[in-house]
Design brief:
about 0% strand
């Protein structure tokens, strides 16, 4: 159960980061540079 939950959470985090944070991260990187 723990491993399954970790895999699900990691997958959700990856999708969340790739989906939402991608735009914000790009904007932040552009602002930093």
């Amino acid at each position: 159960m723990i491993k399954r939950n970790q895999q699900l959470t990691t997958g959700a985090l990856m999708r969340y980061l790739c989906g939402n944070t991608s735009e914000k991260a790009i904007l932040q990187v552009v602002d930093i540079k």
